Amino acid sequence: MQLKPTIFALSSGATPSGVAVLRLSGPDSFSVAETLSGHLPTPRMAALKSIRTRNGDLLDRGLVLCFPGPASFTGEDCIEFHLHGGRAVVDAVSRELLDLGIRPAEAGEFTKRAFENGKLDLVEVEGLGDLISAETEMQRRLAIEHTSGGLSAVYAGWADRLTRARALIEAELDFADEEDIPGSVSDQVWDDVERLKADIKTQLEATQHGAFVRNGFRVVISGPPNAGKSSLLNALAKRDVAIVTEIAGTTRDILEVDLNLEGFLVRLVDTAGLRETEDIVEQEGVRRARSAIETADLILALIPIDSDAEWNQTSVAAPVLKVGTKADLLTAPSIGYDLVISSKDGSGISALIDAITSEVRKRWNGIAAIGPGRLRHVQHLKHTSFFLEEALSGTQLDLRAESLRLAGECLGRITGRVDPDDMLGVIFSEFCIGK
To answer: Which keywords fit this entry according to its UniProt record (predicted)?
Structure first.
């Protein structure tokens, strides 16, 4: 393990706070901690210590914990100072650490060292980042699964199968004259390679469809002008987000509101009314509305029950719920709608929320058992699948073996066994300082 400069950072968030945690990692962590607080406590046991300058001036009294490497988060010697969370206290201890030659950590540097020292792979790193930023229960569940190595184990299992396949093929190539290496030994690997290709296809679909857990399930509210789109947005958000008037074309731009429905992040998108218009600004609003419809996970097609308007967007890919609005004006049973609501008196709103939640759960139930990865994984999974197909359709055994090697390399890029430095920089830059 390569020794690197010792780093420190505030790992507990902005001050002031009840407690501030200053974390150190690197070869000088223990000696610096002894300089500031005296004899170190038993590893992983907190001890109350006086934190002093080299001149003996008291800075604070707090807990000190030490974590000897490699059994630490980063794999290096680590120290944590649990201080009082005032700005002056943190600044004073930080200045003393700077005077002792300890460098402030960059964003994600602790986690990057954990990766470099083999404590985490890239999938677990991404899961940790997702866990830190998780805002809903399903985001937390997905992040925990990735952080605990569940998805990494899937990828590692596939890599092992590829390694075994290559070993059998190379045994036939290298030892074809040996009696204990039958000439058709490689034939037994291709059925498993075919199954592996199918497994990767399933995972690829789950990853593409599962992005909604992390990025939000996009529900686009669409329809003609004055259909009650903005009123519905306000009713679902339970606050005045959009301006509502009787004037057609009031909404000109996209408005988004995030909801937490049973642990899922649902992103409501209010759009301009769909109609032909000579107004240049409104034309742009309509264009953006149509663009939002194309990227929707679910479309709420709002149609006022007191009008003869129809939903005529026939080329959309997402499911469509036809919602009759202004139900408070309804005098007779209405047909032709999936739901009938009134944003004015609230009727039908609960049923609409249930319908949206049901659509989200349908998507989740199709992918939950697989554990969708990030969209970064999609490119590498596609390349892996391409090389597997190349291996399956090939005729020369040595070239087929090379295709399997390239497939394994693509899988390795997902977990970080092989990955360019610029990609690593992008991933770790997403972390906050101190993690």
So the answer is: Cytoplasm, GTP-binding, Hydrolase, Magnesium, Metal-binding, Nucleotide-binding, Potassium, tRNA processing
